[in-house]
Design the sequence.
């Protein structure tokens, strides 16, 4: 029998490769933008027609190509970026596979014009379905323009597979954002169907975020910055109170490349565990820099997935750094956090041993202490996290399947409080508005506090510690109140009875569905116990079903929600001081356990704004 194996013609091989590299118009946009950036462009124009179906053009002012390279760049495995396999581990460029242009040219009509600074004449190449139609000299500006026309013109199956224009355009914008965010120093203009949709000038990272997502982001973000010899983290985190039900603006960049990494996204999100209600997600814009030798970018043709050599270390480091940033910054609105975000990576010494980073939240943050405002970022690292505890933490994480949906429970990193005595807050005056708002003066600012929400935070923290360490003292009732519950609720109450005892409620079953409350928390007006317990059980149930809240947090949350408005009015400076000390003793005084804002800091900036609008 004859041999039956033969090599595929290049045009077919390229079309097959294109199936992976160019899935939709936005993938072509991404590849062209990355090439422009690799070419050192300072200014890039993107011109799109019909959501990329008929035209995708990228024009850059980068270094351009020689006459021959202008043709060679469409060959498969043609790249100027690496020359041996080892180069893969010292990548400084976005591209390296040498297949993007070959793939695009296999499934579209491509027109390339390019010129290098040193050449008088530029080159023009027309290529269609991998076939060169024209290769001539031309006059053109320094840099490169690539126009991709009629994408998938020869692959009807792919063309028919495209979604609506709105969806494809949204995908293109998303790719554009991913590239533009991490290259804020580059200017971009974006046109769709002849209309200028976006113009971005070279700017700082924070300004770029604001330019893309809107002015409100000025106030919604706080910075994160952490350096070790192994890696550097910089960027901005979204405040807890702006968390959304949808995973919205979540951008993680490693070595200036947008990446998707569920494990690392989880490391970031889980740092918010205590301060964001279940089911909500924070925004983040985080840039990691690591030695390129420690990551593998070459695990997917589109290069958005990566593999980290020291995954566990990076995970722990990132998680701790986010917690630290939250501890330092989320408590007070940062009105100006435009500080130098330049990355500074120390070289990793050969054979150096990798240490678990030693960071923890500053649990003693106190806005009434002026030095903390000033030295916020230079605060000495606190007690290092014990490595055994890290191991446990890590094991828990690994047991949790990493999926698109972040699992709702993760054990908290054990963070220890400093032993140093907390300073007590003192005030001279306070103002009450309807016993609902409290206005006090901190050092240079006014604090406007929602009393009921603050009370919820205080009670919640107390309940959590009562459930885990020190039960709340009880006071026996002379005439125990009886409560009546439906069978389902009665079962639930029996299940929670021991925990409720820790919280000061001693409950006894007297007959089917009937309970006696024999004792209530010491020194507390117990109020209407029937509705208190009933509502609490309702909340508990719904938290369990909807948010899969873990037991302790759920009980604390359900009960503090009921009790938050049962607070005695604040009647003296001492009472207000005590209340403030309780609130600011919390690790997260700024939000209630369900994510509502507890206070606003009013300084001259915010007041100016308030009065000028
Ligand atoms: P890769 O980016 O992986 O090298 P591509 O197929 O995207 O592969 O590009 C092939 C080569 O063409 C690049 O290595 C580069 O030398 C050249 N090239 C592509 N786009 C540009 C551009 N905009 N400016 C200058 N050179 C370019
Ligand atoms: Mg490329």
Sequence:
């Amino acid at each position: 029998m004859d041999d039956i194996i033969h090599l595929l013609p290049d045009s077919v091989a390229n079309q097959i490769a294109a199936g992976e590299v160019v899935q939709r118009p936005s993938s072509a946009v991404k590849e062209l933008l990355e090439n422009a950036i690799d070419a050192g462009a300072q200014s890039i124009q993107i011109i799109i027609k019909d959501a990329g179906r008929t035209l995708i053009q990228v024009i850059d002012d980068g270094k351009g190509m020689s006459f021959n390279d202008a043709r060679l760049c469409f060959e498969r495995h043609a790249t100027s970026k690496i020359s041996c396999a080892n180069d893969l581990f010292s990548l400084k460029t976005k591209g390296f596979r040498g297949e993007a242009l070959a793939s695009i040219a296999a499934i579209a009509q491509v027109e390339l014009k390019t010129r290098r600074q040193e050449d008088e004449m530029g080159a023009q190449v027309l290529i269609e379905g991998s076939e060169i139609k024209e290769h001539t000299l031309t006059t053109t500006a320094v840099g490169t323009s690539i126009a991709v026309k009629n994408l998938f013109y020869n692959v009807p199956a792919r063309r028919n597979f495209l979604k609506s224009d709105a969806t494809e355009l949204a995908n293109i914008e998303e790719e554009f954002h991913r590239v533009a965010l991490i290259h804020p120093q580059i200017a971009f203009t974006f046109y769709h169907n002849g209309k200028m949709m976006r113009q971005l000038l070279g700017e700082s990272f924070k300004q770029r975020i604001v330019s893309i997502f809107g002015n409100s982001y000025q106030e919604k973000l706080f910075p994160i910055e952490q350096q070790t010899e192994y890696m550097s983290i910089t960027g901005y985190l979204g405040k807890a109170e702006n968390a959304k039900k949808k995973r919205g603006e979540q951008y993680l960049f490693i070595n200036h490349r947008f990446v998707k990494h569920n494990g690392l996204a989880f490391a970031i999100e889980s740092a918010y565990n205590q301060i964001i209600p279940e089911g909500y997600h924070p925004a983040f814009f985080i840039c990691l820099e690591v030695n390129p030798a420690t990551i593998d970018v070459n695990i997917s043709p589109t290069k958005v997935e990566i593999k980290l050599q020291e995954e566990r270390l990076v995970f722990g480091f990132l998680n701790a750094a986010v917690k630290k940033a939250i501890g330092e910054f989320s408590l007070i609105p940062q009105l100006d956090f435009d500080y130098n975000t330049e990355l500074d990576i120390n070289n990793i010494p050969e054979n150096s041993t990798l240490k678990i980073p030693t960071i923890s939240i500053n649990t003693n943050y106190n806005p009434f202490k002026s030095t903390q405002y000033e030295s916020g970022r230079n605060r000495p690292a606190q007690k290092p996290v014990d490595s055994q505890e890290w191991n446990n933490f890590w094991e828990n994480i690994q047991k949790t399947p990493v999926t698109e949906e972040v699992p709702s429970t993760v054990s908290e990193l054990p963070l220890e409080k400093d032993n140093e005595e907390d300073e007590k807050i003192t005030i001279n005056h306070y103002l009450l508005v309807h016993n609902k708002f409290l206005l006090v003066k901190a050092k240079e600012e006014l604090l406007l506090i929602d009393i009921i929400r603050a009370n919820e935070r205080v009670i919640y923290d107390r309940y959590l510690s009562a459930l885990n360490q020190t039960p709340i003292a009880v006071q026996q009732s002379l005439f125990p109140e009886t409560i009546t519950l439906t069978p389902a609720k009665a079962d639930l109450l029996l299940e929670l009875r021991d925990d409720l005892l820790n919280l000061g409620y001693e409950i006894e079953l007297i007959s089917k569905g009937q309970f006696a409350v024999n004792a209530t928390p010491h020194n507390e007006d117990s109020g209407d116990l029937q509705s208190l317990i009933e509502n609490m059980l309702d909340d508990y149930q719904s938290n369990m079903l909807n948010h899969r809240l873990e037991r302790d947090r759920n009980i604390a949350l359900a009960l503090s929600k009921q009790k938050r408005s049962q607070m005695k009015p604040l009647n003296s400076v001492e009472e207000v001081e005590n209340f403030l000390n309780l609130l600011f003793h919390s690790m997260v005084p700024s939000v209630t356990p369900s994510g509502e804002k507890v206070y606003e800091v009013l300084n001259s900036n915010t007041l100016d704004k308030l009065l000028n609008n």
